[in-house]
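Lab manual, section 2.4: Encoding a predicted structure.

Procedure: take the sequence of the chain (410 residues), apply the prediction step described in section 2.3, and record the output as structure tokens. A sample record is shown.
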Amino acid sequence: MNYRVPQPVPQVILDDVRGAQKMLSGVSRVTPMEGSRHLSALTGSPVHFKCENLQRTGSFKLRGAYVRIAGLRPEQRAAGVVAASAGNHAQGVALASSLLGVRSTVFMPVGAPLPKVAATQEYGADVRMHGQVVDETLAAAQEYADRTGAVFIHPFDHRDIIAGQGTVGLEILEQCPEVRTILVGVGGGGLAAGVAVAVKALRPDVRVVGVQAAGAAAYPPSLKAGHPVSIDAPNTMADGIKVGRPGDVPFRIIGELLDDVRTVSEDALSSALLLCLERAKLVVEPAGCSTVAALLSEPELYGAGPVVAVLSGGNVDPLLLQRILRHGMAAAGRYLSLRLRVADRPGALAGLLAVLSVVDANVQDVSHVRTDPRLGLTEVEVELHLETKGPEHCAEVARTLHGAGYKVMG
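Recorded output:
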């Protein structure tokens, strides 16, 4: 299906964002700004986090959803609203509707994380599971809107949504007036477009840089083509920015106002999530820490003055968080897996473990292989999974094993 909005594409201006800020007074939180000493040292400039992961519903999405629904006419409110989302937008629409006394129906894909489904229901929405991917869920929501007269609340492709998200930019300028660069995650583009409208109108000298996951980076080819283009099968752990096609309304704004769009790898995303947990004590979802991933990947690009990285959300499923933490620790050199051969006799494994204890390597898992035809008659292959302290410690473990006479196979 084609979700393009009618032409001409409406504009969003500073007055729209300021009006949204007044509307959101007492509804959304003015989220805190936290400094990062680690990233400040890495980039050579002060780095601050704009903590939208601490916003009501756990992301910035409440801002745009509330402004959009509050702007509906009485007869539209009476018809109710409908949305499609795998998580953050669903919760934003559900809470905004409850606050405004509007009936809401939210379609979510089958397999959406259970905590997000439960939270959306608790905020008052009628949740309906449909489709395996978000495109199928969107189609179901639009069909429901056509059939019932409910107003479809798009997650990013509407001027009121963009104006609401733009209030993040106004808060950044108030909290960090000396800012020189703002990093914003980009999926469909609503948040980046809103921040750019607010910031560039008041401080055109401030760089606004968008960040996309490399596996779902629709904006670079779209900007090159001069119009939104779709990418096939976007693939990233960052489901909050896993969007295959830019929105028409935010695309126009981003094309005019954003200074750059960078992409980050899955390894960088998992390392960024781990850093937020370990160093900043903040729970941030993969999409929310894409800006941190950009700083980790290319710190040399952000040395010209204070940087604000928007942490756009903190709604991460615990099971996914567990997998991401493992991936992030591996990418950071905190895990070491290796195979080696030892004598097949009593006490051989104990001797190996004693060597590892000397270098303070924590054994997570051990397995034996005795049936490989490449093994000698009196040999056994041991596979070890170790928890280490980083790349230098991994190298120390390998050197110590070699020095003790062990043959490391891989």
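Check your result against the sample. Residues 1-6 have pLDDT under 50 and may be disordered.
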